[in-house]
């Protein structure tokens, strides 16, 4: 990239049938002295298909905007809720598990915590410990990925919620509603988009607020989208969701970029990241959970907070 990408993870030090039928009787043991019944042994039942968790479309204790802290790595913001089989996940940026400097944004070479690492999830009035279940960074490094755009912008990880918390997950994006389906068509410069900010207060407490912006252009050959906003992004917002003007899921916040004309926020394209997970070793059947109806003018939000800037596009 021509821009200096700065990862937004804030550094933080953090402290699951059948009964066997038994061995067959050898033929040599069955003779005239052995009496058998004519009862056929029942066939082993087929394993039941996993039951997809009943994640509510409405707000829940755990969903977009929750704070995630990966042990030994960083503090981030949860994006979309996803399910696969009988498991429920929160999306965050893969670099939230990075252990190097905040400028190390190449997922193919940057050090990262292993899968299974504990992740503290601070939701609405409740905190649980999940696990890092999948990460594009770990997968790319294991597979020897070398494409520079993929390495730079494929920035998706999944935090598995513990069984007791899955029923408390909610898909709704605060303020705006949604998400709808994953967007699969290009975004033209100037297209309005909507997301979340999660800045820290004076005491370090995070407060989710609405964010609006305008597409500046694609980056990484379409792997990412650069967005202009009135207020800059801050450390700890990585992973937060981005929606288009119809509420479709566009991406998750990956980095800040400083350009010659204006700073911008870069988001990993969710469709591409999910496709990569499906083509490699991601959880089979991984699907974002749909939220409620979307609005670009949420009640109780001052329209001035959703002002979108104008600015030149950035070549991808």
From TrEMBL:
SUPFAM superfamilies xref list: Trypsin-like serine proteases (SSF50494)
Region (Disordered): 278-316
Protein name per its UniProtKB record: Trypsin-like peptidase
InterPro entries: Peptidase_S1_PA (IPR009003), Peptidase_S1_PA_chymotrypsin (IPR043504)
Keyword Signal: yes
Taxonomic path: Bacteria, Bacillati, Actinomycetota, Actinomycetes, Pseudonocardiales
Keyword set, alphabetical order: Signal
Signal peptide: 1-27
Species this protein is from: Pseudonocardia parietis
């Amino acid at each position: 990239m021509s821009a200096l990408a700065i990862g937004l993870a804030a550094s933080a030090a953090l402290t699951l049938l059948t009964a066997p039928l038994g061995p067959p009787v050898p033929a040599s043991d069955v003779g005239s002295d052995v009496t058998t019944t004519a009862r056929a042994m029942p066939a082993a039942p087929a394993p039941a298909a996993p039951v997809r968790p009943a994640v509510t479309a409405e707000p829940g204790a755990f969903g977009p905007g929750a704070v995630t802290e990966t042990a030994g790595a960083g503090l981030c913001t949860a994006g979309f809720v996803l399910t696969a089989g009988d498991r429920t996940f929160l999306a965050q940026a893969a670099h939230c598990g990075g252990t190097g400097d905040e400028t190390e944004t190449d997922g193919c070479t940057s050090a990262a915590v292993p899968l299974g690492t504990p992740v503290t999830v601070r939701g609405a009035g409740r905190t649980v410990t999940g696990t890092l279940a999948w990460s594009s960074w770990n997968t790319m490094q294991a597979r020897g990925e070398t494409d520079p755009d993929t390495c730079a912008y494929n920035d998706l990880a999944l935090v598995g919620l513990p069984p007791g918390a899955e029923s408390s997950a909610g898909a709704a994006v605060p303020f705006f509603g949604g998400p709808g389906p994953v967007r699969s068509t290009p975004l033209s410069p100037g297209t309005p988009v909507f997301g979340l900010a999660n800045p820290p207060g004076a005491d370090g407490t995070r407060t989710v607020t609405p964010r609006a912006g305008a597409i500046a252009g694609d980056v990484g050959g379409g792997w990412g989208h650069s967005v202009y906003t009135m207020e800059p992004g801050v450390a700890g917002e990585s992973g937060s969701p981005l929606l288009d003007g119809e509420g479709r899921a566009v991406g998750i916040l990956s980095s800040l970029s400083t350009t010659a004309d204006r700073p911008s926020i870069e988001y990993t394209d969710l469709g591409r990241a999910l496709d990569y997970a499906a083509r490699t070793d991601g959880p089979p059947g991984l699907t974002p959970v749909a939220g409620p109806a979307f609005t670009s003018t949420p009640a109780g939000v001052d329209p001035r907070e959703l002002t979108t800037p104008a600015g030149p596009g950035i070549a991808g």
